[in-house]
User: Fold 3-dehydroquinate dehydratase from Kribbella lupini.
Amino acid sequence: MTARKVLVLNGPNLGRLGSREPDVYGATTYADLVADCEKTGADLGLTVEVRQTDDESELVGWLHEAADHKYPVVLNPAAFTHYSYALRDACAQRTAPLIEIHISNPAAREEFRHTSVVAAVATGTIAGFGLNSYRLALQALTILTD
Ligand code: DQA
Assistant:
């Protein structure tokens, strides 16, 4: 059996992990995150493809691709979380589990981060565990059936 493909999708500014506000997001680089997700996935029997974009339409397109292929998704929508109805509507079309994740805990930060327009159409949300949020989401996918 071939390993199930999972898309790990990252929104704006996450490509700058390592140099971006390290007090909030840590010192691990985006390249390290990609390697860690691929390794975690392989250990779990998943083929993980990690992508990042600062472009809303590109992220929407990747969610359409996931829906068309029934790929499960781990999504860190970054700032789009808080206002992108286009992203929300793309997530609503999912045909497999979609886990919203955050490195930080948005509920413990500024008020504008307390709203997620994606949460209601996600399978569930994991937030506040640093980069372990990605690992936890990949583990969660392995216990979900769809
Ligand atoms: C984030 C939280 C968002 O509020 C923020 O805009 C991000 C990163 C996180 O992973 O903690 O870019 O999604």
